[in-house]
Design a protein that fits this description.
Strand content: 25-35%
Helix content: 25-40%
Structural class: alpha/beta
CATH class of the largest domain: Alpha Beta
Oligomer: single chain
Radius of gyration: 24 Å
CATH superfamily of the largest domain: FAD/NAD(P)-binding domain
Number of helices: 14
């Protein structure tokens, strides 16, 4: 067999794998990355990037309609949106990403990688790669298909098919109530597609309850049939129609069905069994991203099940690439909480934006999670429409901001914003939480007027009462 040796072998060339490799190269290591699909991964071609393009036109049109005097009418130009999507994903061609790898000094091997021994990876059963120091599994996650009779035979869409669509179906039924379900329901409704959302519980279940409620109301206003507390019992396809039978005996029919009920790790065939781990399972790691019980195997990103978000995966990747290089060269490892070589923020300071109408931006703990953790909680709620920046934004601005305060320490531990354009508020809240900035100190961080950021002043005024 053809063999080669490197300091580090990275399996998976999505954003996470790319960043692990890049940080390790910058740390002086030789690195090879193995990819069986497109360099750039799920986020670049089927998730984050194309989905936001599908959402953007509808959001811009709604924003213009809400601005008095804009005089905007009409509908989303779907063909133009899909053309822009194709540009963003480079027509599913990864030549640009490959060029970046080469420029960064990272070698690329195309093919399916499996761990076949200690510090050993075999590609397509033909080429053996050996690592002097480490192997990092960065293969991400895939859509989870629930065990519903008839579902697989009905040829369901996942987020991949939904973001890569060539023609918008007349109607679409979506199974699930999470971020993917809500974002794609928003996008497809803006295209004129008749959308039905079927969720077992409320929408956006892991967030503050008012966030999911507001999104459900907005989706219904946009013409989406939102049904919560329902279970799909059977799915059948007959020609161009899919029918979903629900637990209450009712049926929903549509042209296509999209499954957005969760994610599963792409670890089923990467050779975990060769190192005593369970194939197809999430991989347990410490805060340096090293697999527990191993000296040389790392796992980074979705496969760890810590925070299934691209930006958090890249954050983990920075820590992992740096610590792999440090350990390889005998440099001191900074693995204390908030140290350079750990991913501490994944435990309690994970930011996320749901690009629905309205947007939902959240970071840290919800009220329920904070109370469950035994924190002395104080909740600060504020109506964003009362902020001067909101009144200049739209005469119909409607939004809510919630801060979760740890009363014992006088610091913020969670924040949720719901409303138009609230995504840009999120990073300031993330900094306050990660930095454990005392609320008394935040009085001296003066928000500009008139902007939505003035909500920080309103929170502080409420806190002082």
């Amino acid at each position: 067999m053809d063999t080669a040796e490197f300091d580090l072998i990275v399996i998976g060339a999505g954003p996470v794998g790319e960043n692990v490799a890049d940080r390790a190269v910058q740390g002086g290591l030789s690195v090879v990355i193995v990819e069986s699909e497109l360099v750039g991964g799920e986020c670049s071609y089927w998730a984050c990037m194309p989905s936001k393009v599908l959402l953007r036109a509808g959001a811009a049109l709604r924003g213009a309609r809400d601005a008095p005097g804009a005089g905007v009418a009409g509908a989303v130009d779907v063909a133009a949106v899909l053309r822009r999507r194709d540009e963003i994903v480079h027509d599913w061609n990864d030549a640009g990403q490959v060029e970046w790898l080469q420029g960064a000094g990272i070698e690329l091997v195309r093919g399916h990688a499996r761990i076949t021994g200690e510090r050993e990876v075999t590609v397509d059963g033909e080429r053996v790669l050996r690592a002097r120091h480490a192997v990092a599994v960065c293969t991400g996650s895939a859509a989870l298909l629930p065990d519903i009779p008839g579902l697989v035979d009905a040829a369901p869409w996942t987020s991949r098919e939904a973001t890569a669509v060539r023609e918008i179906p007349e109607s679409l039924v979506i199974l699930g109530g999470g971020v993917v379900a809500c974002e794609l329901a928003t996008a497809y409704a803006s295209f004129g597609c008749a959308v039905t959302v079927l969720a077992r519980s409320r929408l956006l279940g892991g967030m503050e309850p008012f966030a999911g409620d507001r999104v459900a109301t907005a989706l219904r206003t946009a013409g989406v049939d939102v049904r919560t507390g329902v279970d799909a019992q059977r799915v059948t396809r007959s020609g161009s129609r899919v029918t979903v039978e629900l637990g209450d005996g009712t049926r929903v029919a549509a042209s296509e069905i999209l499954v957005a009920t969760g994610r599963t790790p792409r670890t089923g065939d990467v050779g975990l069994d060769a190192v005593g781990l369970e194939p197809g399972a999430w991989i347990d790691v410490d805060d340096t991203m090293r697999v527990r019980g191993s000296e040389w195997l790392y796992a980074v990103g979705d496969v760890t099940h810590r925070a299934l978000l691209t930006h958090q995966g890249k954050y983990q990747a920075r820590a992992a690439g740096d610590v792999i290089a440090a350990r390889a060269q005998g440099v001191a490892v900074d693995d204390a909480p908030w140290g350079r070589h750990v991913a501490t923020a994944d435990h309690a300071a994970v930011p996320q934006v749901t690009f629905t109408d309205p947007e939902v931006a959240s970071v840290g703990l919800t009220e329920a999670a904070a109370r469950k953790a035994g924190i002395a909680v104080r909740v600060l709620d504020y109506n964003l429409s009362w902020v001067a920046g909101a009144s200049t934004h739209s005469a119909r601005y409607d939004g809510t901001a919630r801060a979760i305060v740890d009363e014992d320490r006088g610091v913020l531990v969670g924040a949720t914003f719901v409303g138009p354009d609230v995504a840009e508020l999120l990073h300031s809240a993330t900094i306050a939480i990660v930095g454990e900035v005392p609320l008394r100190r935040l009085w001296h961080a003066v928000p500009p007027y008139p902007t939505l950021s003035e909500v920080w002043l309103r929170w502080l005024e409420e806190y002082d009462r």
